[in-house]
Write a structure and sequence with these properties.
Elements: H1 7-29, H2 44-70, H3 91-113, H4 115-129, H5 135-156, H6 167-174
Helix pairs in contact: 1-2, 3-4, 4-5
């Protein structure tokens, strides 16, 4: 088997892509607004998280680079054949791509239809995707969890979350 078909090589390529993304993300956070008299800035938490990710990705890069360049023993798990990322042959990759599309759709519909409705629909779809099929559990959980989360954020934490078509529900809650 060639080195380019091993898990170690796949990890090396993944690390390179992640390092590029992390550098880009860090550069993007430098453009966040700076608040005078504030010790913690809006960019602080994202930059800390990105730095942590960068450190672990750098470790992955170095480990993979050493294994690919110096060679591996036959019984090394990183010397095994890497899985295919072809969504037509790998159902896991197809499911991951579907969830990514759902996340994009979620962000698109969030303001238009509102948090509760979009979250309930996406929850139902994802539960079916992971194998939960009992409608007596799936439907109430998918509806109640976003409703409770909205109530906690809206009433207790005073975070204004879009309700979309369920605006009358917000108006009803505001009366109490």
């Amino acid at each position: 088997m060639r080195k380019t078909q091993t898990k170690a090589f796949a990890s090396l390529i993944s690390a390179i892509i992640l390092l590029i993304f992390e550098v880009w993300a860090y550069i993007e956070t430098t453009g966040f607004r700076v608040h005078k008299r504030a010790f913690v800035q809006p960019a602080t938490f994202p930059q800390i998280m990105i730095c942590g990710m960068f450190i672990f990705t750098l470790i992955l890069f170095l480990q993979s680079f050493i294994k690919v360049t110096r060679g591996m023993s036959e019984d090394d798990p990183e010397n095994e054949l890497a899985a295919s990322i072809n969504p037509f042959t790998n159902k896991g990759v197809a499911a991951a791509l579907f969830v990514i599309i759902l996340c994009i759709l979620y962000t698109y519909l969030f303001d238009r239809l509102g948090y509760v409705l979009v979250s309930a629909c996406i929850s139902i779809i994802i539960m079916f995707l992971i194998g939960k099929r009992d409608l007596k559990i799936v439907i109430p959980v998918s509806i109640l969890v976003p409703l409770i989360m909205w109530f906690v954020f809206y009433k207790l934490l005073t975070v204004n979350i879009p309700m979309g078509v369920l605006q009358p529900l917000r108006d009803l809650v505001d009366k109490f």
